[in-house]
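User: Design a sequence. Structure:
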């Protein structure tokens, strides 16, 4: 049985979600909150908790942000699933949507089950530090980049 293209994109999202949740599980098992393991002079594995959005935006907002970001993630995920259903043959667009969807759902799972998002990839150079992130955040960034690239491509719709 041949899988419809739409379901293949959802399968890709599911695989990225599984990778995200598995890596976070490993970090939760191996590290206490705040632990650092230096890998190179510019990269550490850490265990941080992000109660806000990107770059800990609104992390100290008192708790309402968890519900707000969860609702936004659910609505955005429903929209992305609809868009994937409508345009599964537009490969770059669908790949971008699949990755953003996976990232949104991976982080949503953390917010709902833990109350925060687990971040563990930590890059730095001398006294300059990039905020810690995770596989879901990476998927969102790559997915958004692909969507931006796709937006500059000529439209395939009839004029």
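Assistant: Done.
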């Amino acid at each position: 049985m041949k899988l419809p293209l739409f379901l293949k994109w959802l399968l890709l999202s599911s695989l990225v979600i599984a990778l995200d949740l598995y890596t976070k599980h490993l970090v939760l098992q191996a590290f206490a909150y705040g632990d650092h393991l230096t890998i190179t002079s510019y990269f550490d594995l850490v265990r941080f908790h992000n109660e806000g959005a990107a770059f800990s935006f609104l992390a100290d907002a008192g708790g309402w942000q968890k519900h707000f970001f969860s609702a936004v993630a659910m609505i955005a995920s429903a929209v992305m699933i609809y868009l994937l259903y409508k345009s599964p043959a537009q490969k770059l667009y669908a790949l971008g949507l699949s990755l953003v969807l996976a990232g949104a759902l991976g982080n949503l799972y953390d917010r709902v089950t833990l109350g925060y998002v687990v971040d563990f990839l930590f890059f730095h150079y001398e006294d300059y530090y990039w905020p810690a992130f995770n596989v879901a955040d990476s998927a969102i960034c790559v997915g958004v980049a692909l969507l931006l690239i796709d937006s500059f491509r000529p439209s395939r719709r009839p004029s």
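The mean pLDDT is 88. The longest helix spans residues 5-30.
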